[in-house]
Amino acid sequence: MSEAGHKFLAKLGKKRLRPGGKRATDWLIAEGGFSKEKRILEVACNRGTTAIELAQRFGCKITAVDMDAQALEVAKKS
Predict the structure, then answer these.
(1) What's the structural domain count of the chain?
(2) CB under 8 Å to 45, separation ≥6 — which residues?
(3) What is the pLDDT of residue 23?
(4) CATH label of the domain that carries residue 70
(5) pLDDT digits (tens, 9 = 90+) for 34-78
(6) 64, 69, 70, 27: which is closest to 49 by C-alpha?
(7) GO terms for biological process (predicted)?
(8) Quick one: 48 exposed, middle or buried, by C-beta within 10 A (0-12, 13-18, 19+)?
(9) Domain range holding 15?
């Protein structure tokens, strides 16, 4: 999906775009072995909602990147 697509879906109130849906994201989080000692890289994080959740739940060190500078600004404020 293009950057424009992300912005359109954000206007509709969609905060997360999950390949595989919420079920796949929940499975990855459950099986990921996340802990305070882990360092995580999220590529194409958009607004960083999954990265923020991982940091809050597990205390992981997160590096999140995205081509959409506006989305990253939203992530930084969260």
Answers:
(1) 1
(2) 51, 64, 65, 66, 71, 72, 75
(3) 86
(4) 3.40.50.150
(5) 999 999 999 988 888 889 999 999 999 999 999 889 888 988 888
(6) 64
(7) methylation
(8) buried
(9) 3-77
Secondary structure string (H, E, C) spanning the chain: CCHHHHHHHHHCCCCCCCCCHHHHHHHHHHHCCCCCCCEEEEECCCCCHHHHHHHHHHCCEEEEECCCHHHHHHHHHC
User: Using CA atoms, how far apart are residues 27 and 22, in angstroms rounded to an integer?
Assistant: 8
Structure confidence at residue 40 (pLDDT): 95
Q: Which tokens sit at 27?
A: 């499975």
| pLDDT value for 56 | 95
Tell me the HSE value of 32 on the side-chain side, using a 13 A CA sphere: 21
Task: State residue 9's pLDDT score.
Answer: 67
* Average of per-residue pLDDT across 21-46: 90
